[in-house]
Amino acid sequence: MSTRTVIRGGLVITASDELHADVLIEDGRIAALATSGTTVAEGWTAERVIDATGKYVIPGGVDAHTHMEMPFGGTKAADTFETGTRAAAWGGTTTIVDFAIQSVGGALREGLDAWHAKAEGNCAIDYGFHMIVSDVNENTLKEMDLLVQEGVTSFKQFMAYPGVFYSDDGQILRAMQRAADNGGLIMMHAENGIAIDVLVEQALARGETDPRYHGEVRKALLEAEATHRAIKLAQVAGAPLYVVHVSAMEAVAEIARARDEGLPVFGETCPQYLFLSTDNLAEPDFEGAKYVCSTPLRPKEHQAKLWQGLRTNDLQVVSTDHCPFCFVGQKELGRGDFSKIPNGMPGVENRMDLLHQGVVDGHISRRRWIEIACASPARMFGLYPKKGTIAPGADADVVIYDPHAEQTVSAETHHMNVDYSAYEGKRLTGRVETVLSRGELVITEREYTGHAGHGVYTPRSTSQYLN
User: Fold this and answer.
1) Is the peptide bond prior to 296 cis by the omega test (within 30 degrees of 0)?
2) pLDDT by residue (tens digit) across 403-418?
3) Helix 249-260 vs helix 220-237: angle between axes, to the nearest 10 degrees?
4) CA spacing 20 to 30 A to 36: which of 19, 71, 321, 438?
5) Helices 249-260 and 301-312: crossing angle, nearest 10°?
6) Measured between alpha carbons, how far is 431 from 265 in angstroms, rounded to an integer?
7) How much is the pLDDT for 291?
């Protein structure tokens, strides 16, 4: 039996509202909200009372793009489901949607079962799965229907990584046609991998081996071209499309154009593209390897266009694409050949704070912060209003957030299982103080009080932007 909790005196912020209200939590759910100081609110009694005076009371974050324990390039992501979800909680995220991987020649079900086995009993917060489709065939297409029925309602395909996850246009079209029929959502890694591989080969032949060349060969135009092609294939199939980790202004323009035409096309970006740039990839002594991810970091001028896309709703979601590889022993696999650096960066713990810094810096409003970090990802992937808001009936995934606390981001103090921070030394205003997941305290005044196994698997409905 869970403890009855009242959160008093805070400013409750959701995607639609800001109000000074007390929040009553019973049986793991939000039971009621009432204006602070009123007879109704004063009348509530509870075993646990949390004072949120001067603080924000916000929904727990929903990170719809993580890769815990993901195998890549002969190694695997450094965070387990246990360490990764604990770090997520420290950063105010209370739900992740990770990616189960179909092996080429294998069934979707085998991949999904393998990821369930990794996660079950190990997560500090709730979790769901998308399915990476690496091998489109008649059996795969039938399995997609079954997975949608049981709550795995989104499928990721890759126009990049030939020989690993790559799907050609015909395979993509078939999967999109199936999604159009079964209500699923295709998520697309939009980069022209075939062309990029040519540029990689040519760069290495010229002796261009440093990390910065990773960004130079993965050209923004090849992200834009693939984004355009994915949009047209989705249009032919009559299917919705969600473009993951959009990094380039040219790709944003393709998505904006499609949305202006009324097409069900959606875009996600990540904090690394909003705060980091090719300057980081060019850091000396192989330090740039820390910032190798795909899509790659872009020149600084792209940042303003990404923030603009978030303000105008041409981009709807900010996820992390959290896929951490340690600098020592993992990123170092690519010394002398940038193409062998494992692609991925840590970030699941930093997203809510970095986006709050976007509020402080005037890029977005407080409500938009909650929209792109909590409500929109929950709606996009069939978790709303169970997740992503503070309203009667919603899961009591609640964060007490101190908007005035100052912090300096560092690998010395973060909780991700990785030996560097992509934001080392960055000063931020705002910090998570207390986190509840389904009414249970996971972070209590900057102390971890959660445990592995609290987090449960959460099946999802189809995208609520399409219903």
Assistant:
1) no
2) 999 999 999 999 999 9
3) 20
4) 438
5) 20
6) 33
7) 98
**Rounded to the nearest 5 degrees, what angle is found at the Cα of 431, between the Cα atoms of 453 and 80?**
30
Integer Cα distance of 234 and 192 in angstroms = 16
Q: What's the DSSP call for residue 160? A: S
In sequence order, the β-bridge partners of residue 241 are 186, 265
Q: Which long-range contacts (CB under 8 A, 24 or more apart) does 164-170 make?
A: 164/134, 165/132, 165/134, 165/189, 166/193, 167/133, 167/134, 167/136, 169/229, 169/233
DSSP per residue, 230-246: HHHHHHHHT--EEE-S-
Q: What is the pLDDT of residues 47-94, one digit of tens each?
A: 999 999 999 999 999 999 999 999 988 899 999 999 999 999 999 999
Count the neighbouring beta carbons within 10 Å of the beta carbon of residue 415. 16
Question: Could you tell me whether strands 265-269 and 241-243 are parallel, antiparallel, or unpaired per DSSP bridges?
Answer: parallel
Q: Which residues contact 60 (CB under 8 A, 6 or more apart)?
A: 92, 93, 94, 95, 125, 374, 387, 397, 398, 399, 435, 436, 437
CA 155, 159, 160 angle in degrees (round to 5)? 115
In Å, what is the CA distance from 162 to each residue of 104, 168, 191, 199? 12, 9, 11, 13
Which residue type does 133 have?
V
> pLDDT means per 10 residues in the chain (467 residues)?
89 98 98 97 96 98 98 93 98 98 96 98 98 97 98 98 95 98 98 98 98 98 98 98 98 98 98 98 98 98 98 98 98 97 97 98 98 98 98 98 98 98 98 98 98 98 90
CA distance 59 to 388: 6
DSSP 373: I
Measured distance CA(277)–CA(291) in Å, rounded: 9
